[in-house]
Amino acid sequence: MTTYPPLGTLKPVDEGIWIVDGPAVICRRMPISTRATVVQLADGTLWVQSPTGLCDALKAELEALGPVEHLVIPNWEHGVFLNEWRSAYPNAQVWGVPPDGARGNVIEHDHDLGGDTPWQHEIAHLIVGGSRAYREAVFHHRASATLIVADLIQNFETARLPAWMRPLIWLAGTDDSAGNMPYLMRRRYSNAGLAPSVEHMIDWRPRRIILSHGRCYESGAVKELERVFKKLLHERQWSRALDDMDGRA
Which of 84, 94, 114, 196 allows an S-S link to 54, with CB 3.0 to 4.6 Å? Predict the structure, then answer.
């Protein structure tokens, strides 16, 4: 079973923040679990990142919390279920990554991520740097110290996967023995562009990480970021040390 039942229901993470586990989608011929994150903003409206499958029971749960105001698509691959939500919530504003440099299918949206937002005092965000072919926005829910990512880190529990899929996940380095940035994605990023974004995420000092795919990290978020990007961060430290030495010479 690749998914995390029960599906299509709010699961509390902390005060004012929930996840919704959804159905599997096919990616590169493999069934991949999906997960949305829902935040209730201070004004009572709802912010939904990576919206997953929408059912009547979930609609009722959301209605009990407040109106869905923001639909947030963190990268172009996470718009599979967007039309369902647009139909259900026609007044919701759709946020997406800017199209410049994005690979192929750009999701139609109302507002670009990367600048000011009406929810920035509650949820910080940045577009991860280092790739012209691929763009992903990551988020930090300040009140709960929760980092929210889409594909940047994946952490598949191999026991939940079909046997034929497990070697592929091991080769990608994204099994839950040591969740990681997928190998093919990592090749799209330059160290110089990616490193400042990783440091920015660490500077947020998150406590947990919500992942769209696989097991989330309920604690130790900073240590997990340092582990995933260990080599990159070490290179950054050495570069700074050499620059300091040159400056003193």
Answer: 84
